[in-house]
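Dear Dr. H.,

I hope your travels went smoothly. While you were away I took the liberty of generating a structure for the chain from your last submission, since the lab meeting agenda had it listed for discussion. I wanted you to have the full record in hand beforehand rather than looking at slides cold. The sequence, exactly as received, is reproduced here:
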Amino acid sequence: MKQDMPSCGGCRTCEMVCSFHHTGEYNPSLSSIKILEKENGAGFIVRLLEEKSTGGFACDRCQELDQPLCLQVCREEDDLAGILKMFAASGPSFHKASKSGGSCS
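The corresponding predicted structure, in token form, is as follows:
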């Protein structure tokens, strides 16, 4: 799922903590969350992976934590929380409660 996030500053800290959570290493290429450049306008595009692939782990919104790691480090926590809620509501059941494939951040 891709969502515009005009408030995102593009620091990509969310990618770093997500990859660490999945792998024990800071490797944003394995993150569930991807921060993508926009061609026009403020902010960035937030992409949440729906399936595990060579490009990262499927996002399950850190179900084992009280708050997803990405929200813990995002300066625009409320905006990102809204994107995560849309992600949970829009997809198959594995978005909502899957324990396989790691966590989101």
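Two observations you may find useful: The helical segments are 13-23, 69-73, 77-90, 93-97. Residues 93-105 have pLDDT under 50 and may be disordered.

With kind regards,
E. W.
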